[in-house]
């Protein structure tokens, strides 16, 4: 018997009556028969506890409510949690197909193992929008109804490096606590083999050293994008290196915040000279709060709202043949990539105002 997958929540479109929506779901009504009046979207996330992914899905739901009125249709969403299991996610694809989804949005558990989902989608003629966790390019090119919405991981690492470089230009002595002219750092990485993790780890260091600064890696550890895991790793770093740590580079905000948790638990004060420069990536709400409080030097905004809106616009374009808005240009007929933005205390207010308008 197929293992029951974990459902996060189900959102039923409210523009039309519930009776019409349930009629479409219960009879296995085909996409062609629905004639564009009801857009059914299946969404599977690799882990519902990932802060960035959770915010992206929340934005997607909010935009769907607005678009129902703008487009005059009902939008039905089924959001599932794969619980970090590719096998569960593959089974969820079967459920989406059986339930007659018009398009499926997949946040891959394993970016190198998309074949099963692609084969199921192609056999049933169900378009797939992969998002946030970029699959291998060769897989995306296997069928003309496969797409990816996300951002350029290389750019995020570069911008994270730029934040530290600008701080070095203004106050190098504040960072270089031991006065040796070298930045001693530790790295908190996402998953082993994950594209964003590898690229961010490489590009941030290339940006710092390319700007003329010397660095020394004290240690690095994989913390799987997870705040608690990062806190445990940081505790070990502090026990081993103590005040030698001048910079903490984390592949995402959750891991940066895990480092902050460990620093605070060890009695470090964000206002003291002993507090290292902590940098994240994603621009989550909790990450922005930490920047505001001076606990993080900065983060790089990964536009969750823009990606969510781009996914929804793409889903509509695929199923109804509508033209995509200019801001969501489809690159190579496959990709929508949203730009990153640096966030520090200096421009935090501007960024927050921008996010409020979305």
Descriptive notes:
- This protein has 358 residues and is an alpha/beta fold.
- The chain folds into 2 domains: 6-151 and 303-338, Response regulator (Rossmann fold, 3-Layer(aba) Sandwich); 153-301, Response regulator (Rossmann fold, 3-Layer(aba) Sandwich).
- Helices cover 46% and strands 19% of the residues.
- It has 13 helices and 13 strands.
- It has helices spanning 18-26, 31-34, 51-71, 86-98, 115-124, 137-140, 153-175, 195-210, 227-241, 253-265, 285-292, 304-320, 348-357; strands at 6-11, 38-45, 74-81, 103-106, 128-131, 146-150, 182-189, 214-222, 247-250, 277-279, 299-301, 335-337, 341-343.
- The strands form 3 sheets. The protein has a 7-stranded mixed β-sheet, sandwiched between helices. A 4-stranded parallel β-sheet has the order 8-7-9-10, with helices on both faces. Strands 11-13 form a two-stranded antiparallel ribbon.
- Helix 8 links the parallel strand 7 and strand 8.
- The longest helix has 23 residues, at 153-175.
- The protein is elongated and about 65 Å long.
- It starts with 5 loop residues before the first strand and ends with a helix.
- It comes from Blautia ammoniilytica.
- Residues 41-322 form the Periplasmic binding protein domain.
- It is found in: Cell envelope.
